[in-house]
């Protein structure tokens, strides 16, 4: 779910920060610039891991700040396709089930990959899995807001949603940068798609009984092994 990305940037340190040690000032500036931002085709930046190398610092004509070329590693949120993650239902709409991880909200499970058959209840604003019973009937399992849900990551989509990138990003060898607080808020800079249409996925409460039985079976096996020994 979290990866280390090696990035390169030219970091500007303003004169009022010259009282700080250069590595400390650079770390603060990198985190200020990248933390909680989306880098195009990289992911959601979380925190600086370490600085790999520092180049020479130069002062450009007409600018009293120092400019240092830096190679660094940054912790980035970008789940692997096929990875199983547990989140919480943020809301439901005809578009699908919207999930949050607390620090990241743009996760969608489209209707086609919900447990089948499912329907959308307009009055409740919730998706419902019509769980089939042995007698041919069905039992409605509601996907309520706040419920813990386990899903498999099936895809991702990046949008260049901010003018922060552009020529500056290319100049500094950084991918284009986006965030929901800057640029075009009508676009989602990074969206993840998931699926729950397989056994064991979906609301954790759906499988709680099966998990409890499995734990009981394991406990019985351990007890029997202890008695035999």
What does this structure look like?
With 229 residues, this protein is α+β, with helices and mostly antiparallel strands. It has two domains: 2-77, 2-Layer Sandwich (Dna Ligase, domain 1); 83-160 and 188-209, Beta Barrel (OB fold (Dihydrolipoamide Acetyltransferase, E2P)). Helix content is 17%, strand content 43%. It is built from three helices and 14 strands. It has helices at 22-34, 166-171, 208-228; strands spanning 2-13, 38-39, 43-59, 66-77, 84-93, 96-100, 107-109, 118-121, 126-132, 138-143, 148-158, 177-178, 190-195, 202-203. Strands 1-4-3-2-12 form a five-stranded antiparallel β-sheet. Strands 5-6-7-13-11 form a five-stranded mixed beta barrel. Strands 8-9-10 form a three-stranded antiparallel β-sheet, with no helix packed on it.
State the distance separating the first and last CA atoms.
42 Å
- Strand percentage lies at 35-45%
How many independent structural domains? 2
CATH-defined architecture of the largest domain: Beta Barrel
- Characterize the biggest β-sheet: 5 strands, antiparallel
Strand order of the largest sheet: 1-4-3-2-12
Helix content: 10-25%
Residue-averaged pLDDT, rounded?
85
Q: Which residue ranges are poorly predicted, with pLDDT under 50 across at least 5 consecutive positions?
A: 164-171, 179-185
Shape: elongated
- Please compute the radius of gyration using only Cα atoms: 24 Å
What's the CATH first level of the largest domain? Mainly Beta
**CATH homologous superfamily designation of the largest domain:** Nucleic acid-binding proteins
Number of strands: 14
Put simply, the count of helices is: 3
Q: Given the helix and strand composition, which structural class is it?
A: alpha+beta
CATH fold assignment of the largest domain: OB fold (Dihydrolipoamide Acetyltransferase, E2P)
H/E topology pattern? EHEEEEEEEEEEHEEEH
Family: Belongs to the eukaryotic RPB7/RPC8 RNA polymerase subunit family.
Keywords: Antiviral defense, DNA-directed RNA polymerase, Immunity, Innate immunity, Nucleus, Transcription
Pfam family, one: SHS2_Rpb7-N
Subcellular location: Nucleus
């Amino acid at each position: 779910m979290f990866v280390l990305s090696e990035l390169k940037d030219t970091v500007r340190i303003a004169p009022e920060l010259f009282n700080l040690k250069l590595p400390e000032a650079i770390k603060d500036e990198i985190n200020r610039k990248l933390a909680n931002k989306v880098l195009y085709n990289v992911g959601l930046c979380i925190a600086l891991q370490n600085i790999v190398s520092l180049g020479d610092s130069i002062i450009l004509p007409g600018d009293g700040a120092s400019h240092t070329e830096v190679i660094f590693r940054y912790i980035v949120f970008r789940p692997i396709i096929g990875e199983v993650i547990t989140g919480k239902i943020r809301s439901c709409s005809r578009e699908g089930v919207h999930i949050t991880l607390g620090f990241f909200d743009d996760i969608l499970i489209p209707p086609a990959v919900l447990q089948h058959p499912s329907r959308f209840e307009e009055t409740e604003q919730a998706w419902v899995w019509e769980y089939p019973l042995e007698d041919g009937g069905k039992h409605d399992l509601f996907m309520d807001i706040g419920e813990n849900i386990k899903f498999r990551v099936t895809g991702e989509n990046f949008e260049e949603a901010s003018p922060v990138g552009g020529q500056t990003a290319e100049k500094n060898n950084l991918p284009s940068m986006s965030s929901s607080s800057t640029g075009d808020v009508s676009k989602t800079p990074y969206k993840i798609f998931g699926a729950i249409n397989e056994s064991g996925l979906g609301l954790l409460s759906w499988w709680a009984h099966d998990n409890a039985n499995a734990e009981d079976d394991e406990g019985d096996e351990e007890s029997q092994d202890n008695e035999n020994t």
